[in-house]
Amino acid sequence: MFKNLTEVKEFCNSKGIKIVDFKITDLAGRWHHLSIPVTRLNEKVLEEGIGFDGSNYGFKTVEKSDMVFIPDLNTAFVDPFCEIPTLSMIGDIFALEGGIRRYEGDPRYIAEKAEKFMASTGIADENIIGPEFEFYLFDQIAYESRPEHQEVAIDSAQAEWNTNDQYEKNLGYKVRHKGGYHLALPYDLTNDLRSKMTVMLEEFGMPIKYHHHEVGGPAQVELEVEPGKLKDMADKTYLLKYVVKNIAIQNGKSATFMPKPIFGEAGSGMHVHMWLYKDGKPIFYDKDGYSGLSQTALYFIGGLLKHSPALLGFTSPSTNSYKRLVPGYEAPVSICFATANRSAIVRIPGYGNTPDSKRFEFRSSDATCNPYLAYSALLMAGLDGIINKIDPVKEGFGPYDVNIFELDDEEKKKIKGLPKSLEEAMEALKQDHEFLLKGGVFTKSLIETWIKNKIEKEHKKISIIPHPAEFELYYDL
Description:
Elements: H1 5-15, E1 19-25, E2 31-37, H2 43-48, E3 50-53, E4 66-71, E5 77-78, E6 86-95, E7 101-102, H3 107-121, E8 126-138, E9 140-146, E10 149-155, H4 191-203, E11 208-213, E12 220-225, E13 228-229, H5 230-250, E14 254-256, E15 272-278, E16 281-282, H6 295-306, H7 308-315, H8 321-324, E17 334-339, E18 344-348, E19 360-362, H9 371-387, H10 409-413, H11 422-431, H12 434-437, H13 444-463, H14 468-474
Parallel strand pairs: 1-6, 17-18
Antiparallel strand pairs: 1-2, 3-4, 4-6, 5-6, 6-7, 8-12, 8-13, 8-14, 8-15, 9-10, 11-12, 15-16, 15-19, 18-19
């Protein structure tokens, strides 16, 4: 948005901005923020940064936790959710050892390095991605996990379970179980809310392709964005979630991107469409290739599929991710590719038949990821496939242009499956991460910290908590 401090100051004066807010990602993928009066924004801030405790962001240990962030003026936007006029911008993280320098483990810097590595290979100069964001909009959410009490209570006014609500005004038109896909008014109670989100995101320079109701009856919805460059799309992923959550709260709703918040209902994924361009031309198209794909595209797919168990360590990094990734349900878990087949983890849309529209999507990812890390890992896996000529057909990954769930048992055995738990995904990442280290994009230290955090703070925590369903199964034995 701005090139220098003078432009920022002029804008702030003209718009009556009183506060400048800085948003910084932690390792897990959450925004944190710090605010200063606009009068305190000066060249020193842009050169030396603002200090913070890196241990609270997951980057450093307590005894060596001092870090600084320096704002990226190009990311500035007027924050619509602050009562006092506020200009927000994303901060880049810097280490202090040996002088101020970019922190190699800053997720945003990793995305930048991934794009630079791609260019250095000569394969492509642009990686374009287009995520699809699925999420639920609830009217009530309450949860508690204590030794003597475990409970989650969710409600949605349009859910099927409210057909017999006699205590609140009930006009019927509840959405049937898994019956919400593209459902129209009056069933679709969140239509106007999604339109508000869409309009605001468009104003922020994030074009929305469309929005609609998704399969899940209790107000599962989707916003699909127009594609863009990797690091910029990662920035915008944070912005989209920020806008969605805050507009929902303003309108008495609660938005969640959890992959599987409701047992038995459709899970929420984040399918990622991918293109590569060189000199302004798409390199994934070949009218004579399988499904209109070039050999380069197939090699990219080969890299994604070969490394997919490890990729899930970044693209599906929550224990809840594996409540969605279950064989026989709507989420893809079979390591294969196909055209127009939503049961494959790499799907080639059947309706993309021109050079610029020819693409494929990775379908197993979800929005609990850190987008800088997830998008970068997908690119690095694909590039590894191209560099090493990993042919998905020769590797036995397909194509499978059939419903994989309906194959006989012998055929199913031929197709490998994805990790079934966060622990398995972390073990896969532990065993297969050399492709991420090329060009210094990811660091071994970051990967080790990521795995340790996911196992110690998430997997082990969840694995030792008794589940209410276990009482149903075992209490009387």
